[in-house]
Amino acid sequence: MSTATLTEPRIVSVSVTDEAIVAHLADGRVVSVPLEWSWRLSDATHEQRAHWEIIGDGQGVHWPDIDEDISVAGMLRGVPAKQPSRT
Asked: What's the CATH fold of domain 11-77?
């Protein structure tokens, strides 16, 4: 009999294409969401998109050049970033 270990999903690497934010998880899954879900990444240069850091033990990703954070939980739940309203 085998038992499954329940663990939180963890990001090990990420890439940003012209269409998607793609996260590679420690358990082998690949999760992608539309690039337009992050208005900061949508507006960023390729160099800014390529400069990222893992948050914690893989709970998320931080792009320091544009001050953007995306969590693996948000990607899995389908939660796009809201752009601030301009008044």
From this structure: NE0471 N-terminal domain-like (3.30.2020)
